[in-house]
Design brief:
This protein is an all-alpha fold. It folds into three domains: 122 residues; 116 residues; 347 residues, no CATH class.
Length: 821
């Protein structure tokens, strides 16, 4: 990025914006396509669900009519047979259409749960067809080929499998699927209400056909069917409250209230009252099936109305989505058009002028100051070009001034543009500096000429002085050689004395080593005696302290024994308390069992109350809610009593374990008392032995103290001998140092004499060289005089004050820019 050109950066940014717009358009197109496909899927699934509900309604009616027909001992009428055929044709047609749609949906998604549910449906369909053939044979020959209960179970299994296909088709995967959740929920509720109402229709129709009262297991099943129907109808009424009364759903719910909860409910109650009184039924089986079918159809109409409203809502959402897609496409095209115009404008108004300025700047960097800038914009680039042209005019003025200075004209005047004009100020200072330097060089050239003559005279005097110095140095050199011979003899005598002093010092060192070794051995002996005396004294103190410790131990054992006795009494009390706690927990367990029995009885009473409330219809709905709450409280009470029973059992187990632990604790306390008595006897025996040991250690301490005093006297004598030997050794060492100092002094004097001789010889050589140098200086002074005259001639070409003038370069006129508006 640092080395990237601006035009490339701008073009890259614009291309990136265009690419993002295209990607956004593609993404939205993919999403719209996917949502459109999903919407089409859900529309197909919704139509399939409608066909399934139609098929379920016909099959449920077929189940009831057929069960009534095969339950009668008389031959079936032609009207009933025709009705069964019509119901089969209607149900099979709706079934075929639903399966065709399901197969198409399955082909689009092989991993969908719809595949498995369709396989189960095929198996149930085969079982249903076999049952239908058995029914046909039974109706034709009036032979009991199939029991009504088996027929109802086979048809019910098929209806449930078909309903499972409907549920699997609406498995939620995306937010769009969730939009159909309410529709699916209502259809599921409608299915359950219609299904169990159909089961009630078939069961009661069979009982009416046989002329038998509703009793025993049949009555319990019918109560369960009706409770499920009432519950789902109540939920359906709550869910459909959000729909307006004038909508399709509102009209369907009004029909449900009039048909199912109105006329059909009155007939149903009359049938149940006749059954309870063992009286003849007020209707025939066909009339019962007809009225029940009208009531169930009013429930199914609610699902159809919800489907219609959902289809309208989804269609409106799809239209809005298509409109949003069109708007997005138009906005993307407009964005691409604006991007193209921006690219063209940037190339003309920014990139092209910048390239011209870059070309001129590169030429200026190569020293070309005659280039012109042809940019006449009314924007910032025009201002930049004008400023750049003014800068080039200024550089040309400075270049002209530099050419005048290079020609030797130092009288020109350069005026800076401002106080911050560093280049103009620098050139002005350069001219002033050159003016001063040239003047000083003129003056210096004259001074050098006069100084050269003086150097020639001084060089002749220096040559005479060098000759006198050479003769004096020869005399000094002879005297120094004689003094060096005398110093050599003194040095030889000093070295012999130093060797003898070294022998004496060596013998003194050996004596000092022997004395030091003897003194060290005696000191170690004295230290050992002192250590023995200290150990004996410490052992005596330890023996005395052990007697005190034994006395303390006896007291501690007595206290431990009394504490063990108190612990034994406490453990006995704890054991009694725990046994009483176990007895109380058993009583609580008995109370919990009584509460559990009461909860079970309450649950049974609540269940019976719910059944009675279901039979009471609308009048018993409030009582049914109360009965349901009582049943829930009974279940919670039973659950709580079970948890309390578990806790009581755990407490009883832990109390039994605690009783065993207290028994073990009592035994351990008795053992502790016996151990404390044995410990007291052992401490008595240890106390007598410690007293006897203290007397023996006292005698050892007195003997070692006497030996320590004797050894201390020997150590003092050895230290005095070592001190005398050290004084002798110091005197010998001092003598050795003195002899060595004398030897060093004579050696240094000899070396100094040699240096003086060499210095005199060097001085003679220097005098000779000085004589030669004076001759050279005289010649160089003549040359310097000639160069000074040449320098005066060279400086004379510079103009300092005469004919001074200001340098003015004709400036290039500034580009005329129009005023901004």
């Amino acid at each position: 990025m640092k080395h990237m050109k601006i035009r490339h950066l701008l073009m890259a940014l614009i291309a990136l914006l265009a690419l993002l717009s295209v990607l956004l358009l593609v993404k939205e197109g993919v999403r719209v396509t996917a949502d459109g496909g999903k919407a089409a899927w859900l529309q197909q699934a919704n139509r399939m669900a409608d066909h399934i509900l139609t098929a379920n309604a016909s099959e449920a009616l077929e189940r009831g009519v057929t069960a009534t027909a095969i339950s009668k001992p008389d031959a079936v009428t032609a009207e009933t047979a025709a009705k069964i055929r019509t119901l089969r044709e209607t149900g099979d047609k709706a079934y075929a259409e639903a399966v065709a749609i399901a197969e198409g949906l399955k082909a689009g998604d092989q991993g969908h749960p719809l595949n498995e549910s369709l396989n189960v449906l095929a198996e149930r369909r085969a079982a249903l067809m076999e049952a239908r053939r058995s029914v046909d044979r039974a109706l034709e020959t009036r032979t009991p080929a199939l029991a009504p209960k088996v027929w109802i179970g086979t048809m019910t299994a098929f209806i449930e499998a078909l309903s499972q296909v409907r549920r699997d088709a609406f498995t939620a995967k995306t937010p769009l699927d969730e939009a159909y959740r309410s529709n699916l929920q209502i259809k599921e509720i409608v299915f359950l209400a219609a299904e169990y109402a159909g089961r009630e229709r078939a069961t009661i129709g069979s009982a009416i056909a046989q002329g038998k009262p509703i009793e025993g297991e049949t009555a319990q099943n019918l109560a369960r069917f009706r409770a499920i129907v009432d519950q789902n109808v109540t939920v359906l009424r709550l869910i459909t409250r959000k729909f307006p009364a004038d909508s399709h759903v509102g009209e369907a719910m009004a029909g449900l209230d009039a048909e199912f909860l109105g006329r059909f409910e009155q007939m149903r109650r009359a049938v149940y009252q006749a059954s309870d009184a063992h009286a003849p039924y007020p209707v025939t089986g066909s009339e019962w099936v007809k009225e029940a079918t009208r009531g169930i159809d009013s429930i199914l109409n609610v699902a159809e109305a919800v489907s219609a409203d959902t289809e309208r809502a989804v269609g409106a959402a799809q239209q809005e989505q298509q409109l949003n897609t069109v708007v997005l496409v138009l906005m993307s095209l407009a964005t691409l058009t604006l991007v193209g115009l921006a690219i063209l404008l940037i190339r003309r108004r920014i990139i092209a002028p910048l390239l011209k300025l870059v070309a001129v700047a590169q030429a200026v960097s190569n020293g070309e100051l005659d280039r012109r800038i042809a940019i006449a914009h009314r924007d910032e680039l025009g201002d930049l070009a004008a400023s750049f042209e003014a800068m080039m005019v200024y550089l040309r003025e400075m270049a002209a001034a530099a050419e005048e200075v290079s020609a030797g004209n130092l009288s020109i005047k350069v005026k800076p543009k401002s106080e911050r004009d560093r280049l103009g100020t620098a050139i002005t200072r350069m001219i002033e500096g050159l003016h001063v330097i040239v003047g000083e060089v003129r003056n210096t050239a004259g001074a050098v000429t006069s100084a050269a003559g003086q150097i020639v005279g001084s060089s002749h005097q220096l040559a005479d002085t060098a000759s006198v110095q050479a003769s004096a140095s020869e005399v000094t050199s002879a005297a120094m050689e004689q003094m060096a011979a005398n110093l050599k003899a003194v040095d030889t005598s000093t070295q012999e004395l130093e060797q003898k002093v070294c022998v004496v010092q060596s013998q003194s060192n050996e004596l000092a080593a022997a004395v030091t070794q003897t003194s060290g051995a005696i000191a170690e002996l004295a230290a050992s005696i002192q250590q023995v005396a200290g150990n004996a004294s410490q052992a005596n103190q330890v023996a005395a302290g052990s007697s005190d410790a034994i006395a303390s131990g006896e007291q501690a054992v007595a206290e431990a024994k009394s504490g063990m006795t108190a612990i034994n009494e406490t453990m006995t009390g704890i054991r009694a308390t725990i046994e009483e706690l176990a007895a109380r927990s058993g009583e609580i367990g008995a109370i919990v069992e009584v509460i559990d029995d009461i909860a079970e009885q309450t649950n049974l009473l609540a269940l019976n109350a719910a059944i009675e409330a279901a039979r009471a219809g609308d009048a018993g709905r409030g009582f049914a809610v109360v009965a349901d709450e009582v049943r829930k409280l009974a279940e919670r009470s039973a659950k709580a009593t079970k948890e309390i029973g578990d806790l009581i059992a755990g407490i009883q187990k832990e109390t039994a374990h605690a009783v065993g632990v207290t028994h073990e604790g009592t035994d351990k306390v008795h053992q502790g008392v016996r151990l404390a008595e044995h410990t007291h006897e052992a401490l008595q025996r240890i106390k007598g032995a410690a007293t006897e040991m203290a007397h023996l250690l006292q005698e050892v301490e007195e003997a070692t103290s006497e030996q320590a005093q004797s050894s201390q006297q020997i150590v003092t004598a050895a230290e005095q001998m070592a001190s005398v030997n050290e004084q002798v050794n110091a005197a010998v060492h001092e003598m050795h140092l003195l002899t060595r100092s004398v030897s060093y002094a004579t050696a240094e004097q000899r070396v100094g004499g040699d240096q003086v001789v060499r210095a005199i010889e060097s001085l003679n050589a220097s005098a000779h060289e000085a004589s030669l140098a004076t001759t050279s200086v005289s010649g160089a002074a003549d040359d310097l005089n000639g160069h000074a005259r040449g320098l005066q001639g060279a400086v004379a070409r510079f103009k300092l004050e005469a004919d001074s003038r200001d340098v003015r370069i004709e400036a290039v006129p500034r580009l005329a820019l129009p005023e901004r508006r």
